[in-house]
């Protein structure tokens, strides 16, 4: 999947059963977060971005969320488990993710991450990334983090989201969609 605007040029390749992860957004800490999320999701993921980082990282982070969400939506199997959840501790921080990959986009982001730069990544942009991801992948996504350290809180959220996505994308043992309606 690709997205090219006056602000960014984003290319994402996603495999739900891959192992190779290669991320280059121009924002080192964000690369690390995407890598850890993909690892815990069990994905093969390639992300390449040329963005207007001379302005700030907002457009890059949000547009990666958009394109990754579109790629995820296209890759999800019809007979997916649909639901996933995970608690991830990182030292004093605890991150939680619960999601429904049933096609209804909603984000509940309950994490008072101190707004500060982690390398060149504004920790406050995590909310923008997950909003764009949930809207474009059709995820109902609830995220929560407690802690004192912005790095630990952010990383716990990305890991928890990855672990929950791994569960939700797994094939169901039963035939058909994980819905009493018969379709997602």
Structural notes for this entry:
- With 184 residues, the protein is α+β, with helices and mostly antiparallel strands.
- Helix content is 35%, strand content 30%.
- The protein has four helices and ten strands; from the N terminus they run βββαβαβββββαβα.
- The strands form three sheets. Strands 1-2-4-3 form a four-stranded mixed beta sheet, with helices on one face.
- Helix 1 runs parallel beside helix 4 and helix 2 runs parallel beside helix 3.
- The longest helix is centred in the C-terminal third of the chain and has 20 residues.
- The radius of gyration is 16 Å and the shape is globular.
Helix count equals 4
Beta-strand percentage?
Answer: 25-35%
Mean pLDDT: 93
- Cα(first) to Cα(last) distance is 23 Å
Q: What is the alpha-carbon Rg in Å?
A: 16 Å
Helix-strand pattern, N to C? EEEHEHEEEEEHEH
Biggest sheet, strands in spatial order? 1-2-4-3
Report the sheet with the most strands, covering strand number, pairing sense and barrel closure.
4 strands, mixed
- Structural class assignment: alpha+beta
Number of strands: 10
Shape: globular
